[in-house]
Amino acid sequence: MNSQNVFDTAGPDGERLATLAWLLFGGGLVLFVAVLGFLLIALFGAARARRTLGNPRFIVAGGILMPVVVLTALLLHTLGLARALGLPLPGDTPPLRIEVIGHQFWWEVRYPEARITTANEIRIPTGRDVVLEVTASDVIHSLWIPALHGKIDMIPGLVNRRTIRADRPGAMRGQCTEFCGTQHAMMAFMVVAETPEAHQAWLDRQRLPAATPPEHETGRAVFAAAGCGGCHAVRGTEWDARIGPDLTTLGGRMTIGAGILPMNAGTIAGWIAGAQDLKPGNRMPSYANALDGPELRALSAWLESLK
Ligand SMILES: [Cu+2]
User: Fold this and answer.
1) Core-most of 84, 133, 219, 248, by most CB within 10 Å?
2) What would the DSSP string read from start to end of 271-305?
3) pLDDT tens across 199-219, in order?
4) Which residues of 104-131 are buried (b: 16+ CB within 10 A; e: fewer)?
5) How far is CA 76 from CA 29, 175, 273, in A?
6) CA 143 / ligand 1 centre spacing (Å)
C-alpha cells in the first residue's frame, strides 16, 4: 500500500469518502460528456437540432433546473454522509487516544495512556477505535490520512477530536492540508496500522529508555557536544527538550524529516548536515560546517540504532 490515495482505503470512513469521490467523478464525467455533445451539436448539428438548443425552455431546464436538482441532491447526500463519519464502534472497548500536535513543519505524536511521545509517524491498532485529538503549536495545520478519513483542522488553542478506524494492517501516507508556511508541502507523515498484538508490543518497546551500547558511545558524545539536546528529547538521557521531534526511537520510523526521505543512517547524516538544504526555513540548523565526517557517521549510526 504505502500510498496517499483516497481510492485505496483502509477503513470504513475511507470507504465512504471513496464512494463519494467516485460519485463526484462519475457524475462530473457524465455532465462533461453531455456538455461536449451539446457543443458538437451547436457547432455542426442540423439546423433543427441547433434551434432546439437555443430554445429558452432548454436553457432554463439545462442551465437552472438541472444544477439546482443535482446540487441539492449532492448536498443532502453529503449531509447524511457527514453524520455517518467518525461514529464509534458499538461495544465496551475504550478507544485509544492519540494526541497529534502540528508544528512548522513536523508532527508531534503522544500516547497519553502509555505516556510516550514520538513524531512524524502514527501507529494504530486495527479493528479498534482511535480518537485523534489534534491541535497546533504555532499556526493552523490540518491532518489528513486519505485512506482513513477527511481532513481535521489543527488550530492553536483548540482541540479537535475525530474517531478513526483501520480495518486492515498496512502503511499509508498522510499530509498537512492547510498551508502553514514555506515547507508545508514537506510536512507529511506515515500511518502504520498493525494488529492489536503487534501494536501493544510496539507500545511496550517505546516505553523503554533509549539504550547506548558501547560501540555507539562516540555518537552519543557527539550529540552532547553539538548541543542537539537543546531542542530534542531522548528518553532515558538528560535531554528532554521539545522544540524538535523526540528522537528516542528515531530509527524505528519509516521516514525522516516528516516524510521527506526513507529512514537509514545515510539519510540521517544527510539531514543533520543539510537540514536547511533539504527543507529550507525549518527550525533546525544545518551542521555541515560544525561536524566532520567521522563525527557525523558516529552520530547518525547511534540515532539509527534507536528503535
Ligand atoms: Cu502544516
Assistant:
1) 248
2) HHHHHHHHSTT-SS---TTTS-HHHHHHHHHHHHH
3) 999 999 998 888 888 899 999
4) bbbbbbbbeebebbbbbbbbbbbebbbb
5) 21, 29, 53
6) 8
Taking alpha carbons only, the member of 265, 275, 174 closest to residue 231 is: 275
Number of domains in the chain: 3
Q: Is residue 111 located within the same domain as residue 149?
A: yes
Give the model's pLDDT for residue 62: 87
Distance 33 CA to ligand 1 centre (A): 38
**pTM for the full predicted model:** 0.90
Q: Are 120 and 190 contacting, i.e. CB atoms less than 8 angstroms apart?
A: yes
pLDDT in tens, 146-198: 999 989 999 999 999 999 999 999 999 999 999 999 999 999 999 999 999 99
Hunting for cell 465496551 — which residue is that? 92
How does pLDDT run across 109-131, given as a tens digit for each residue? 999 999 999 999 999 999 999 99
Q: How far is the CA of 192 from the centre of ligand 1 (A)?
A: 20
Take residue 5 and report the three cell numbers written for it: 490515495
Q: What is the CATH number of the domain that holds 292?
A: 2.60.40.420
Residues 6+ positions from 197 with CB-CB distance below 8 Å:
none
- Would residue 90 count as lying in a domain? no
User: Ligand 1 centre from 214 Cα, in Å?
Assistant: 39
